[in-house]
C-alpha cells in the first residue's frame, strides 16, 4: 500500500479544548466555557433546558485553562514539527474575533493571536487547516438570539468569515465550515448553540438550525473562493457506517434509513447542493417544516464544498426493535452492541474496517477528495517511574486504522490527508475530562485541576514520526 505523494499527515485539535486563556486577549465567553467537566457534561448536552450559567462551587470548568496553548503554542508547534506534521487542524474561537458575536468590528487582539499561530506553523513548514466553527458559538448569540434557530446568525457568521478570509488570505489555504455538522440533531447544544425547548421540538428546531448553517456554509464557500483564489473549503461530518444487526430485512431497512439520514443528509446538501429526496418522507413523518427564504436553495447550489472531511471513531449497528440491554454503552450515536467488536475504555466500539467502508461509501457517492480529520483512541495513560508513557494500545489502534485507509486508497479512493484527533492531550469534548487522553504528547494536567502542564513525548510520538517520514509505509 502506498499513500499519495504530498499526502497531508498531521494532527487535529479545537480551540475550546486546548487554548485556555478564556478571559485573555479580549475574548468573550462561548458555549464551551460554561460546560462543566466530568460525567455531568453528557447529561447537560442531552437534556432540554440548560441555562448556560456557571456554578463554580459545584462544578469545575476545565476548558477555561485547557492545556494553555494560548501561551505555549510555540512549544507545541515545535513538537508537531519534530513529528514531521505536514498539516495541523485547528479551529478559531469565534468569540476571540467577535466577543459577543454580533459586533460590527472585530477584536484586533484575537486576530493578532491567530496571526502569530499561523506564522509559527509556516515557520516550521506546517499547513494550517482551519475549522471556522467548532462547538464554540459565542454565548451572547446563544442567550440573546437562541443560537442557530435564529436566522440572524447567518448574517453574523458571514461577517465573521469575511473578516477571517480577508485577514488570513495569505496564510490559510484549507478551511472547514462547521465541525461535525450532522451531529447537531443528536446534540444541538454543541453544533447549533441551543438546548432544545423540549424533546418534542428537538427535531424541528435542529433541522431548522441546520438549514441556516447550510446557507451560512454556502455563503462562506462562495466568499472564500472570491477572497482567496485557490483556496480549498470543505465540510466536516461525523461518519459512522451503519450495519444491520443481522440479515432480517426489517433490520436491514431500518439500518439503511437511519444511516442515510445521519451519514448522507448533510453531505448531500453541502456536496451536491440540494436537499435529497429521501429526507421528504422523514420530514413528513416527523412533522418537520423548514422555513426558507427566497434564494436559499440557489445559494446552497452555488456554494458546494471542494472536498469532504470527516471524523471516524466508530461504526454503528442498528436493530429495529431493541431492548435497553442491547444498546451499545458509550457509543455516541446510539445503536446496539456489535458482538464482533471490542470497545475502548469509554465504551466506544473499535472498528478499523469501518473506516475503509466509510471512505468507500463517501467516495462512491460524491467523487470528491476526502480527508480524515479526526480519528483516535481516548484512553488512560500511565507515566512510568522513568517518565516514559508506553501507549502501545494507541499505536495498535492507529496502525489498524491507517492500514484501513491504505486499503481504501488501493480501492481507488481519493484520500488527501489524515489528522489524528487530539495529537496533544486536551480536554475531552464529550466528558470534559483530561484523563481521556488521545495525544502523542502527554500534558501533565488532571481532572482534579492539578498538574504542571509540562509536555512529554509518548511512545506513539516516535512511532507517528516514523509513519510520516515513510509516508505510511512504516507502520
UniProtKB/TrEMBL annotation:
- Identify the GO cellular component terms for this protein: cytosol
Q: What is the top EC class of this enzyme, as a single word?
A: hydrolase
Pfam families xref list: Glyco_hydro_1
Q: Name one GO biological process term.
A: carbohydrate catabolic process
**Gene3D superfamilies registered for this protein in UniProt:** Glycosidases (3.20.20.80)
Q: Does the keyword Hydrolase apply?
A: yes
* Protein name, per record: 6-phospho-beta-glucosidase
Amino acid at each position: 500500500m502506498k499513500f499519495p505523494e504530498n499526502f497531508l499527515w498531521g494532527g487535529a485539535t479545537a480551540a475550546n479544548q486546548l487554548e485556555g486563556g478564556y478571559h485573555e486577549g479580549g475574548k468573550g465567553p462561548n458555549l464551551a466555557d460554561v460546560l462543566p467537566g466530568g460525567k455531568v457534561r453528557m447529561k447537560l448536552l442531552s437534556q432540554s433546558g440548560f441555562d448556560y450559567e456557571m456554578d463554580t462551587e459545584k462544578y469545575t470548568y476545565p476548558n477555561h485553562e485547557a492545556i494553555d496553548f494560548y501561551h505555549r503554542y510555540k512549544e507545541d508547534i515545535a513538537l508537531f514539527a519534530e513529528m514531521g506534521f505536514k498539516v495541523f487542524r485547528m479551529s478559531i474561537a469565534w468569540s476571540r474575533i467577535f466577543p459577543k458575536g454580533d459586533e460590527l468590528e472585530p477584536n484586533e487582539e484575537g486576530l493578532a493571536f491567530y496571526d502569530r499561530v499561523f506564522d509559527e506553523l509556516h515557520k516550521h513548514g506546517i499547513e494550517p487547516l482551519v475549522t471556522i466553527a467548532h462547538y464554540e458559538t459565542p454565548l451572547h448569540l446563544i442567550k440573546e438570539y437562541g443560537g442557530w434557530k435564529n436566522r440572524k446568525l447567518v448574517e453574523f457568521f458571514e461577517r465573521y468569515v469575511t473578516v477571517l478570509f480577508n485577514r488570513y488570505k495569505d496564510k490559510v489555504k484549507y478551511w472547514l465550515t462547521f465541525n461535525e455538522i450532522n451531529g447537531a440533531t443528536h446534540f444541538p447544544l454543541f453544533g447549533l448553540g441551543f438546548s432544545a425547548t423540549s424533546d418534542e421540538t428537538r427535531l424541528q428546531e435542529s433541522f431548522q438550525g441546520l438549514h441556516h448553517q447550510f446557507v451560512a456554509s454556502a455563503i462562506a464557500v462562495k466568499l472564500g473562493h472570491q477572497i482567496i483564489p485557490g483556496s480549498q473549503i470543505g465540510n466536516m461530518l461525523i461518519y459512522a457506517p451503519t450495519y444491520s444487526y443481522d440479515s432480517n430485512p426489517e433490520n436491514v431497512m431500518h439500518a439503511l434509513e437511519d444511516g442515510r439520514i445521519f451519514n448522507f443528509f448533510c453531505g448531500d446538501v453541502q456536496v451536491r447542493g440540494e436537499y435529497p429526496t429521501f429526507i421528504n418522507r422523514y420530514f413528513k413523518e416527523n412533522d418537520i417544516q423548514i422555513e426558507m427564504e427566497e434564494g436559499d436553495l440557489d445559494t446552497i447550489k452555488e456554494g458546494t464544498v471542494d472536498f469532504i472531511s470527516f471524523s471516524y471513531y466508530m461504526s454503528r449497528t442498528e436493530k429495529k426493535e431493541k431492548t435497553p440491554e442491547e444498546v451499545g454503552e458509550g457509543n455516541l450515536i446510539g445503536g446496539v452492541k456489535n458482538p464482533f467488536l471490542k470497545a475502548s475504555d469509554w465504551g466506544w466500539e473499535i472498528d478499523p474496517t469501518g473506516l475503509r467502508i466509510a471512505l468507500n461509501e463517501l467516495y462512491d457517492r460524491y467523487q470528491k477528495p476526502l480527508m480524515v480529520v479526526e480519528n483516535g483512541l481516548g484512553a488512560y495513560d500511565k507515566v512510568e517511574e522513568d517518565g516514559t508513557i508506553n501507549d502501545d494500545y494507541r499505536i495498535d489502534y492507529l496502525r489498524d486504522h491507517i492500514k484501513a485507509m491504505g486499503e481504501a486508497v488501493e480501492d481507488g479512493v481519493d484520500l488527501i490527508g489524515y489528522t489524528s484527533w487530539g495529537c496533544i492531550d486536551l480536554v475531552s469534548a464529550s466528558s470534559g475530562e483530561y484523563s481521556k487522553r488521545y495525544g502523542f504528547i502527554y500534558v501533565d494536567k488532571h481532572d482534579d485541576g492539578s498538574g504542571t502542564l509540562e509536555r512529554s513525548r509518548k511512545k506513539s510520538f516516535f512511532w507517528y514520526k516514523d509513519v510520516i517520514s515513510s509516508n505510511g509505509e512504516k507502520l
